[in-house]
Amino acid sequence: MQSGTPHDTAKHCHDEELGNIGGQLCKNDGHSFKESCSITNSEVLTRVKWSEEENKALTQMINKHGLKNWQTVAHAIPGRSAPQCRQRWRYKIDSAINKEAWSEQEELRLIRAHQIYGTKWREMVKHFPGRTNGAIK
């Protein structure tokens, strides 16, 4: 019996990407997630907000190991992967990020950059040192 709800479908696809969960490989065979995988709700991976302790550990590990060895950094923070650590540092914690309100001059430059580049955010961000892709969007 197919569930047909987007939530179940998305959850099935997400868990299928994770591979072998609970000893059984999830397959896209037309059945709902619950029928194709035998895992409990407590085993489902969820997003967890970064704690202040994790932020401090991330900063300490970056200071110790630098910005190239993300696997080593992630091993010191249980439950966090190397890409998660990299993204957290790059977009939230790095002291080089300018988190101040946009000045009028920056806003005018942003409008001009948008006229030139359209929605090519990666190109635009090069002209705004200290600003992230997300800040520009």
TrEMBL record:
<dbReference type="InterPro" id="IPR017930">
    <property type="entry name" value="Myb_dom"/>
</dbReference>
<keyword id="KW-0238">DNA-binding</keyword>
<protein>
    <recommendedName>
        <fullName>Myb-related protein 3R-1</fullName>
    </recommendedName>
</protein>
<dbReference type="GO" id="GO:0005634">
    <property type="term" value="C:nucleus"/>
</dbReference>
<feature type="domain" description="HTH myb-type">
    <location>
        <begin position="42"/>
        <end position="97"/>
    </location>
</feature>
<dbReference type="Pfam" id="PF13921">
    <property type="entry name" value="Myb_DNA-bind_6"/>
</dbReference>
<feature type="domain" description="Myb-like">
    <location>
        <begin position="42"/>
        <end position="93"/>
    </location>
</feature>
<dbReference type="InterPro" id="IPR001005">
    <property type="entry name" value="SANT/Myb"/>
</dbReference>
<dbReference type="InterPro" id="IPR009057">
    <property type="entry name" value="Homeodomain-like_sf"/>
</dbReference>
<dbReference type="GO" id="GO:0000981">
    <property type="term" value="F:DNA-binding transcription factor activity, RNA polymerase II-specific"/>
</dbReference>
<dbReference type="InterPro" id="IPR050560">
    <property type="entry name" value="MYB_TF"/>
</dbReference>
<dbReference type="GO" id="GO:0000978">
    <property type="term" value="F:RNA polymerase II cis-regulatory region sequence-specific DNA binding"/>
</dbReference>
<feature type="domain" description="HTH myb-type">
    <location>
        <begin position="98"/>
        <end position="137"/>
    </location>
</feature>
<feature type="domain" description="Myb-like">
    <location>
        <begin position="94"/>
        <end position="137"/>
    </location>
</feature>
